[in-house]
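PROTEIN DESIGN WORKSHEET
SECTION A - STRUCTURE
LENGTH: 75
TOKENS:
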């Protein structure tokens, strides 16, 4: 099994943004809709409704994620 190694400059750049008090970092916010939601674009869990339902994100849409990000940004 191979692993991916990211250059130190990527890690350092990420750390800069994550430590800023005037920014909020959100890691892959659209993954829930992409993999589990009704608008899913991935075929990974296409035939596995049990996993999609069990994820807690089976109702996640791109709009609900945008709405959540907007709401969290106002707080």
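SECTION B - SEQUENCE
RESIDUE ASSIGNMENT:
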């Amino acid at each position: 099994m191979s692993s991916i190694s990211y250059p130190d400059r990527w890690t350092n750049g990420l750390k800069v943004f994550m430590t800023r008090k005037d920014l909020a970092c959100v890691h892959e916010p659209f993954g829930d809709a992409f993999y589990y939601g009704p608008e899913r674009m991935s075929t990974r869990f296409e035939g596995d409704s049990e996993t999609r339902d069990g994820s807690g994100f089976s109702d996640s849409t791109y709009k609900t994620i945008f709405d959540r990000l907007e709401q969290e940004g106002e707080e």
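SECTION C - NOTES
The mean pLDDT is 85.
Residues 3 and 28 are 20 Å apart (CA to CA).
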